[in-house]
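Dig into my protein:

:::
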Amino acid sequence: MRGSAAAVALGAALALTAAGCATLGLGSAEQPEDATSVQTIEYYPFLVKGYQGSYPARTVLVLMPVDARDFVDTATSDHAPLGADPAIGVTLDQKQAVIQRLYSLPLAPTLQAAIAKSAQEAGMTATVSSQTQYQAGQKMTADYVLAAKITRGWVIKRRGIEEQYGPTWSTDATFALAITVYKPPFSVPFWQGATDSTYDDPPVASFALGPEDETGIYDNPGEVLSVALTRSVAGILDRADFRSLVMQDQIGRR
């Protein structure tokens, strides 16, 4: 009886240890069961700090972004959508073979809402439009009109070495934008710029610390791409040159 109780106690301890490691991310990701997965891509408010409330109270109209992504070096030549859902990445096995293709809802509406939220964080008042292109001379009440192109947007989840509690996984995502801001009714851009963000989960530097530190924060690759998207969007307004230009701009009544 005493030996049996000890075995039960040992088994419970091992189960708790395994559960703790799974919570930390060690071996928590298993081989995907489905060949495709539709991921949730979203903007994380206030993830990027420092630019909140730093702009004057101006109004900006955010046009519908254009998905013009460059799929160079995306680990696959197949970027076809799944119906209306665009391709956003892949999951690879240890031999770098594709074991799951990743999709999401259309990126343009998600990005448009993200830019509007970021502008509001910065202190501006943002509205959105279904238009994708700015039309010079068009009567508008907004102080500025922002047009965006998605130039990169891809995430890759890779299976790594086998550890005590299962396989290790790493995920890297990149998201890049080309931005043009107009001041109605003028046709010449008021400001142009580009943002590019890459996010690795776990951070690349952590692999030098040992397997116990190779712990990812996010379970889903869509979450990692969401971080890259959030940072890229914040990079529009977290720019000293753009901020200075807006602050120096004398807005007259229309």
